Amino acid sequence: MDEDHRIAADQLRSARWFAPDDLRSFGHRSRLMQLGYAEEEFLNRPIIGILNTWSEINSCHGHFRERAQDVKRGVQMAGGFALEMPSLSVDESFTKPTSMLYRNMLAMETEEMIRSHPFDGVVLMGGCDKTTPGLVMGAITAGVPMIYLPAGPMLRGHYAGRILGSGSDAWKFWDERRAGNISDAEWLGIQGGIARSVGTCMTMGTASTMTAITDAMGLTLPGASSIPAPDSGHQRMSSECGRRIVDMVWEGLTPDRIVTDAAVRNAAIVAMATGCSTNAVVHLIAMARRAGVDLTLDDLDALGRTTPLVANVRPSGKDYLMEDFFYAGGLRALMKQMEERLDTSCLTVTGRTLGENLDGAEVYNDDVIRPLSNPVYHEGSLAVLRGNLCPDGAVIKPAACDPKFHVHEGPALVFDSYPEMKKAVDDENLDVTPDHVMVLRNAGPLGGPGMPEWGMLPLPKALVRQGHRDMLRISDARMSGTSYGACVLHVAPESFVGGPLALLRTGDMVRMDLPARRLDMLVDEDELERRRAAWVRPEPKFERGWGWMFSRHVGQADTGCDFDYLERGHGAAAGEPDIF
Ligand code: FES
């Protein structure tokens, strides 16, 4: 950038905390000196907040304490001053009932901690599923220069000469165990081998999908999302984040200049090409709306119909994992290959365009990153269904379900709660056929609560023992990005608020026509009207605390499940009032 366009030190946001000769600023300077810093270290320098979602109970972010030191090294080299701040570590594995209940808490915390502290720029450290959208949503609203540091995928899993993929293989082997085909010793071996390093799930699950989306949107260093967590390149990328954020501050490169309509569209196309997690729909819409970009389910369906799936990475791809994807050239190589479909003029955190960032990128293994002429699937990462069961939409991943279910009609088998469903599927005498359509309701944003990842409903034991491994399933829940099968998800409006799913009864015929994008219950309108009149709204799930607030403000899946009062345009723009 031209020196004339760089901001001056007295224009730094942090100068409002440290420059004035008044009592309040005296206190701020004095308290940094209390921490052992001299004025020379922090005055007239960009102050960089490192928002770190490390915690001892977030196994995916186990390396973040060390990586924060790498970021600091970079900030210092570039003449900035870094302060690390802990952020809510929304981990996917341990959080009950679901981490999604806390995505908006992280988004709100991020926005408020940036707004209320003297940060000129921030490095956001996240990766495990909800941490990426949570951090990015909050930082977009806060509006200071930011760069996203993705945790990176863990190494491939291994057991007894077999390669194991996060999630996908756990579900597969669990079905085999339920069918009596896996011994205790084998199960223990799989348990120890499936997650053998720090880092996020190494299939193209929600974590890798969301970090790829952030990368494609221009919010990470180019290709950063593909670097495996334990790779030394990940440390170097971390220190480069530190160096780069300091320059972004001087350049005034704020997220509103990066997260544009075109950048969001690029991210959606790249998501489709990677065979993204269905969770991408909810989070991408929420992130886009924070930036004032009105991305809809129909936009995503249109892109899903025309974007070939070229990343041969499980679960949508057949053979490979994120480590292979990195060695094959990673996300830069995939985007280079799709360049003609992307808007390469988009500005990125590097200060250069996406096109410039892709210069020199190439594919080193065209079985992992397929050419457009030989994709894994010509279309079908995501499809959006509508019909009398889901007037505001539902989502399915065609590439991950058996094609025989693409057009399917069968009797509904309806469950009102997860425990009820679980009891039934474990009953070997359950009256169920492979044609049945299993339905779980009260699992949406309010009903779950928090829209848990229950959407890959377990197959009834009776069918598993007969050798069946897929059936049509419908819910207002989400499913893990590492899941697979004929699962219709995110039914909106959800049943808990009176969506039509609430009216369905066991035995009603249900029809899905995926090519026509339809999902309907074959029940006549008069009967539905009678059922609607008799429907009773369930009692609220929470009477206090975060859940109470969540229940009052969360939106439905088709609009991204953000809180109404956090959406862009609600009230004044973020900023610290002058009186403080
Ligand atoms: Fe953290 Fe999968 S559990 S990314």
Automatic annotation (TrEMBL):
Entry's Gene Ontology molecular function annotations: hydro-lyase activity; iron-sulfur cluster binding; metal ion binding
Alphabetically ordered keywords of this record: Iron, Iron-sulfur, Lyase, Metal-binding
Residue ranges the record marks as coiled coil: none
Domain Dihydroxy-acid/6-phosphogluconate dehydratase N-terminal: start-end pairs: 45-357
Record carries keyword NAD: no
Domain Dihydroxy-acid/6-phosphogluconate dehydratase C-terminal: 367-561
Pfam families: ILV_EDD_C, ILVD_EDD_N
Family: Belongs to the IlvD/Edd family.
The protein, known as: Dihydroxy-acid dehydratase
